[in-house]
Every structure is written in structure tokens, then in C-alpha cells.
User: Fold this.
Amino acid sequence: GGGSSNVGVTSLAVSPWDSDTFLVGSEGGLLLRCSFSSKTPAAAPSDGQSLAAKAPAVFSFRPHRGPVHSIHCSPFHRNLFLSAGTDGLVHLHSLLQTGPLLSVRVSDSYVFQVQWSPSRPLLFAAATGQGEVQIFNLSCRSLRPVATIDQGGSGQASTCLAFNCQNPGLLAVGKRDGTLSIWQLSADLTEQRPREISQLEQLANRAAE
Assistant:
């Protein structure tokens, strides 16, 4: 933003809804919406390269306090995405406004990855530096975890996770020590409820108010 030169990229997500749009998180906490087709010349010199560098950022969101480790676009709404980082927060953002729609305190440590459920529009999981994976349901007013996955206090940070899109009942979790676990989620965490899409729409509409 603001004509600055290089940004240390720590996370990146391409929109599944618009192939020209991608989101970038930086080591300084910046969160940027970018365009592959941007024509704006980069402020930084191109180091003698024949191709002139372009500055892809087109919009800046309110930054995190520390590096942004993870960004994930909603598979159920084109304007919504989650971001997470070393400040222990997960922000729910709309592409249409600067500030987050919601901020959820997930951990007193880092959040290394956040991912939407592929089957529940309001559910997401977050991998934390304390080792647990916290699962949240945005339809719950308390914004407390609806489930916690903890491997018996090993103390090893959970650094990555992934839902299985073919079988949403499976969640893979990777640890700092290189171990990988596959967890079976209950039907309660995988079966979509009747009003979830409309509730997600209501959340997204807050940006237009």
C-alpha cells in the first residue's frame, strides 16, 4: 500500500470465485486484495529484468498485529474469507470493506492455519501453536469452539490442517515434529443445517450496511 516497495509474503489464496483475484498476507501483518491483471507499475526497481514489474495490490484490509500465516476463501460465498496469524486471532472479512466483520480469539499462541469446512458454510477449523485444533461455528453467538482436537498435550504446535473435500468427515492435522494425524469428525460437524446458507448471507450483508 501507499507506494511502498516490497512486501514479505507469508500467505496467499486465489479466489475460487474470480480467477483474477488473489489475497496476500505479509510478515508485517498487511492483508491485501490483489489482481493478476493489474497494470500499475511497481514502485520497486525491476533489477534490470526485461519484464516491467507490476504492483498487484488493489485494496488493503485492516492489518493483523504480526505475520499473517493463513488465508482461506469461503467455498460458499464469493465475498467472504478468513485470515489468521501470530496474534492468535481469526478475522472474518468481506472483500467489500476494510475492517473485519468478526474477530475470533482462537489462541494465546500463533494460529498457523485456518480453513473453512467444505460441507458446513459457517464452520471453520484453526491449527494453533499450542497444539490444539479449534473448530468454530459462526452461528453460535458465544464464538467459543464447538470442538477441540488435542493429542493429549504433546506440546507440539499444530502447523497445518486440511479438510477432505470428498469426505468432509476427515480432517488431517500436521504437527511441528513432522507427524500427521487423520481425525474422524462427528456428523454434527459435517452435516449442513437448513438455514446455514442464509445465515452466511446475513453475515456477508453486514459489509453493505
Remarks:
- The longest helix spans residues 196-205.
- The mean pLDDT is 87.
